[in-house]
Amino acid sequence: MAKILKKVDVLTVGVGWTGGIVAAECAKAGLKVVGLERGDMRSTEDFVEVHDEWRYAVNYGLMQDLSKETVTFRNSPKQKALPMRKLGSFLLGDNLGGAGVHWNGWTYRFFPYDFQIKTMTEKRYGKNKLSKDYLLQDWGITYDEMEPYFDKFEKTAGISGEAKNPFSGKRSSDYPQVPLQNTPILSKFEQTTKKMGYHPYRMPAANSSGSYTNPDGEVLNPCQYCAFCERFGCEYGAKASPIVTVIPTALKTGNYEIRSNANVIEILKKGNKVIGVKYVDTKTLEEYIQLADIVVLSSFVLNNAKLLMVSNIGEQYDPKTRKGTLGKNYCYQLNPGTTAFFDDQYNVFMGSGALGTNIDDFNGDNFDHSNLDFIHGALIYGLQSGSRPILSNPVPAGTPSWGSEFKKASVYNYTRAISVGGQGASMPHYQNYLSLDPTYKDAYGMPLLRMTYNFTDQDRALFKHITAQTEAIAKAMNPKSIVSAAQITDYSVVPYQSTHNVGGTTMGSDPKNSVVNNYLQHWDVENLFVVGAGNFAHNSGYNPTGTAGALAYRCAEGIIKYHKKGGSLV
């Protein structure tokens, strides 16, 4: 029988960026907060002298154990979904801080267009720009309303950047730190795109360009450009993550407790409110019930949706009738791009996760789509994140895929290849959604989450268009040769693409098409909040973390208001 624990003011399920932000803000406001973390505790000291590409980049040392918890996958409702047994397309984080520990640090604000995408698309192109198979919707909040929360997240994370992107929304202040160091690779991309009439700017980075103390007194150290960012924790404390920013802030208040190895299996409801959660100690397998006045789902996109589903909270989306909201609008991203090969050598073995230069001329609605069969676009970038030797083997077209010729070409081109990358937006389609699998269960007897997803005509058209732009930029650099990404067909869970899964618990202004309101408060259960990239109604050409962090500050503000007055916040 589950042991019942003393009630707290606020309970967060998951302690990553969103859970850490909510905890810090609520604890600073005097609320008693408990954070339940499925994984182990960890800190910067755990990453000292562990630049081990094989352990972390190849064998996913910081990632979720799929033998205990995974998802099933299929391309369409007609197929049988099967469990994903090895990480590939996306990398689910594990332990304290979650994916916010092993991320690269790209930190963007979504465009004003993103938040009002349906309204703005119809205003410019009419109501029939996309077919009715696409579930386009506004977010129920504007960029201007979101701006203060973006600003707060950037100051907390000490973002290094420059406010010179002509396509971005208005800012109340500059980035708190100057950009990371420039390099010959980035200069080449900048000079080339300028000559082509585009508008390059430095990538906003959560890799600290200098010594920085954030408004809560947490310190970030200068980046060492060691090239071990993505899939690694930072041993220098130079990459902003929950474990070096918001979690220490919350703990300092004395109002916050973290319980590790606590896997939540059910949200407990009484009447039209939740009363707490049931969780399992993953070490002892003992069950506990933690009571709370307010419950916040702040784990990864997929787990937030699953917990609502297994707890029977909200109406599951049905693609046949298109009714229901839970699981709807699941979106991913696209990765077109071109690699250029040169005779000149570059120090590609050095870098930082977000050491880059971008253009947004083909992102959002920053270019005319009137004669194109897609909407939105892609970030296009030059990046020097550091080419680690095991997974970095760029070779020109026609090179054998193995043997002595491959080895020779791989060694020669390792320092002579520059990539022009693209990151494309993803629009919601009525047949792309999340649900519970009727067959497979996790290690605790709960149904696995089932992902039904495939690329659409919109995706393929956007991918083709952006690939052409990256080819043009690469050719303008005067390389010896180029190789472009192959055109996409069907989505697969291998190989790696990005951990930019979004949707399933969308926000909005109407409970008919969203799960939560614009304070991330559940429409059906007023003391339940759900926050993260699952709130996105579609995916942008940008990385999701900056927008998810801003939403977490919005959510925390709503929780504090709700604790004082109760009721619906909108």
TrEMBL record:
Ranges that cross the membrane: none
Pfam entry (one): GMC_oxred_C
Domain Glucose-methanol-choline oxidoreductase N-terminal: residue ranges: 142-331
This protein's UniProt keywords: FAD, Flavoprotein, Oxidoreductase
Database matches in Gene3D superfamilies: FAD/NAD(P)-binding domain (3.50.50.60)
Domain Glucose-methanol-choline oxidoreductase C-terminal: 428-552
This protein's record includes keyword Kinase: no
Gene Ontology molecular function, alphabetical: flavin adenine dinucleotide binding; oxidoreductase activity, acting on CH-OH group of donors
InterPro entries according to UniProt: FAD/NAD-bd_sf, GMC_OxRdtase_N, GMC_OxRtase_C
UniProt family annotation: Belongs to the GMC oxidoreductase family.
Name this polypeptide is given: GMC family oxidoreductase
